[in-house]
Design goal:
Chain A is mainly alpha-helical. Chain A contains nine helices and two strands; from the N terminus they run ααααββααααα. Classes of the chains: A mainly alpha, B mainly alpha.
């Protein structure tokens, strides 16, 4: 035992940060593939998600810019998104329910990935369908929210509550996010069907790619789904709570 | 010692040794219990950020709490649900470093927004 070993605090792994950084250099300079533990499919999904991160960041930053630069008072999301339940006005309750709904769908998705790798395809497919159900419920609640606001006179160019930019930011950000959720639901249904039929056990070729798939597609699908949940975390914080 | 080299699934350990990795895809399988724990934590953190609004906390404390709960939730989702905690550092760096540029844009646009607000107040007298 050298002194170095003794001083390492996280004793669960022998890797030090230095050797891990050397690993980064070795991976990137290895003249073959940089992402050793990720298949091309997973790496491509990650890279797509990075680009999507920039899209949503631009939306949120433009929202920040218009909110900071307007001299008109910004509408209070807490009051606008309140609902009357049993005669009591509860602030932001619909958004809270949507948040819990999406988190729940992320939980079921994570478990679906687990069962897919365990080759328990029925359980995996059912959990993916549950995930799709929660996703569809989220989109439904968003449609309710949109129609409520439109009914109250919120438009992309103005609204009765305050700064005109509120409407354009709201429709742009939540609309783009809702579109992502909708695409995710469709994606989930397609993969769930393939898992249920056992396509990845018998090596059936995909209708679109004409290639044999692997159970890893469930994890890749999961990456997309968790990302949609991740974006909502930021929208919830910056648009609804700020 | 042979068990050390065989960690395709089940294990929480990194896939391969840092400097000399095996070039192969692997399955991310972790205990369901961990997912349920994270699920529960996300519920609690969401409830906390909702309570910030419910009890109408205002000022810097509000912003601080919102950002803290937001970052904790984002961290849990990325690390556990998206398995970032078990990926090799080369992928982690490639994914997490570029979005840092967003912070620069945010700082620039905050500056710009403040300036526009000042001009509007100055010339149009809000």
């Amino acid at each position: 035992m050298t002194a170095e070993h003794v001083s390492t605090e996280h004793v669960t792994t022998e890797e030090t940060l230095r050797s891990r950084m050397l690993g980064v250099v070795a991976d990137w300079s290895s003249d073959q593939r940089s992402f050793k533990s990720a298949s091309w499919g997973k790496a491509m999904m990650w890279i797509f998600l990075v680009s999507d991160t920039f899209v949503f960041s631009c939306f949120l930053i433009s929202y920040m810019t218009v909110r900071m630069s307007t001299t008109v008072e910004w509408p209070h999301p807490s009051e606008i998104f309140a609902l009357d339940i049993g005669g009591k006005k509860i602030p932001l309750i619909l958004i809270a329910i949507m948040t819990f709904d999406l988190i729940t769908s992320s939980g079921t998705m994570a478990m679906a990935v687990n069962f897919a790798y365990a080759r328990e395809r029925r359980k995996a497919a059912i959990l993916m369908l549950v995930t799709a159900f929660f996703g569809a419920a989220f989109v439904g609640m968003q449609a309710f929210e949109w129609s409520k606001l439109i009914h109250e006179g919120v438009r992309p160019w103005g609204n009765p509550f305050g700064a005109a930019q509120f409407g354009s930011s709201f429709f742009m950000i939540t609309g783009f996010h809702g579109f992502h959720v909708s695409v995710g639901v469709i994606f989930l249904l397609i993969i769930a069907r393939a898992v249920w039929r056992g396509d990845y056990d018998v090596g059936r070729r995909g209708f679109f790619t004409s290639r044999k798939g692997r159970y890893e597609i469930v994890e890749i699908m999961g990456l997309y789904w968790h990302f949609v949940d991740l974006v909502w975390v930021f929208i919830f914080a910056f648009f609804y709570l700020w | 010692m042979t068990a050390m080299t065989d960690n395709t699934t089940h294990s929480h350990a990194p896939v391969a040794q840092a400097a000399q990795p095996a070039a192969q895809a692997h399955g991310q399988q972790h205990p369901i219990k961990l997912y349920l724990l994270v699920w529960g934590l996300l519920f609690v953190l969401s409830a906390c950020s909702y309570l910030v609004d419910y009890f109408d906390v205002q000022g810097y404390l509000r912003w601080f709490l919102i950002v803290v709960f937001m970052l904790l939730k984002a961290g849990l989702i990325v690390a556990v649900f998206m398995h970032m905690a078990w990926e090799r550092l080369a992928l982690v760096v490639a994914i997490l470093a570029p979005p840092m540029a967003v912070l620069v844009l945010m700082a620039m646009m905050a500056w710009e927004g403040e300036y526009t607000n000042y001009l509007r107040a100055f010339f149009f007298g809000a």
